[in-house]
Structures are given as C-alpha cells and as structure tokens.
What we know:
This protein has 108 residues and is mostly helical. The protein has four helices and no strands. Helix content is 77%, strand content 0%.
Amino acid sequence: MEQNTVNNMLKDLKSCLKKIKASLAWEQLKNEEKSSHLTSGSLLEDSTIQELRNSYSQFLTLSLQIHRQLADPSSILGKQQKEQYRKQLQRMEAEVRTRHLPERFINL
C-alpha cells in the first residue's frame, strides 16, 4: 500500500513537471509572438503564469509529501526502495530548479 502511495505521488509529480514545461514553452511562444509585432491583436491568452504557479505549487506540495513518506521511520518501505524513490525525486527536483521558478514568484 505504502509503495503504491509513493509511486502514485511520483507519477503526479512527473505530471506536474510536464505541466511546468508546457507552461514555460507556451509562455516563450507568447513572448515571441508579442515581440514579433506580427500579431493582429490576438495575443495568446495570459493564463499561462497562473497555470505555471499552480503547477509549481502542486509540485512543491507533492515533493514535500514524498520527502515525508520517505523520512518516516515507521515506513514499511525497504532501504533500496526508498533510495530508488529518492533518486527519482531528486532528478525531478533538479530539473525544476533549472527553471528558476522561485525567483519568478517570490519577491523579496
């Protein structure tokens, strides 16, 4: 059961990562369209930033939940399984970090 829970959360995390990538690609396309001055008044809809925020927020929440599951000393998951999950999690977190999203949304 616990293994299925972590597996499902990792699948959801991967889905969030795909949404983040798609939103960033869409935003880039929108910016290229805007800068090309070839638009006839029909700029792409600007819900992209909100979608990106939502996906990033969901990614962070899921990531934290997975970390908690893997750190739980009462977990029935074996060390090897936990390590495999940690590696998957770290790969996805590293990929999100390359997108520099915190700098976009946190104004200090």
